[in-house]
Amino acid sequence: MTTVGDAVRTGNGKILANFREMPAPSRSIVEEVIAKLKEAGIGGVYVLGNVSEPVCQITVGLNRVGLVLLGGLNPVAAAVEAGIKVENIAESGMIDFQQLVSVWQL
Fold first, then answer.
1. Among candidates 45, 36, 48, 41, which has minimal Cα distance to 17?
2. Dihedral of alpha carbons 64, 53, 27, 8, sign
């Protein structure tokens, strides 16, 4: 259902995303957090809307702000598109940080 590889190569494709709504007064705080994340090299916010205005053709509630975030499984979707068999297991507990490995080691 995705074309993450095309999106990376050409700038056009289908990727996974999430839509969220938040109270309008929190918009300025969210803008600050997004700016700090960008400074740290962390992206992922596709659109931060305006108060009570639709975002990506999605209706937003009164005195709310819409936010579209890129989905966390886009790298997995790209792997599937490349013919790599994957198994996704939903988060179900805690794991010690030292047990994590780089994706490049996989």
1. 45
2. positive
Burial of 69 per CB tally in 10 Å (0-12, 13-18, 19+): middle
User: 49: which 2 tokens?
Assistant: 């809307």
Q: How far apart are CA 27 and CA 23, in angstroms?
A: 7
Half-sphere exposure of 49 (CA within 13 A, CB side): 25
Grade residue 19 by pLDDT with cuts at 50, 70 and 90.
Answer: very high
pTM confidence score: 0.70
Q: What is the rounded average pLDDT of the residues 52-73?
A: 95
| Strand partners of residue 66 | 21
Structure token pair of residue 91 = 């988060």
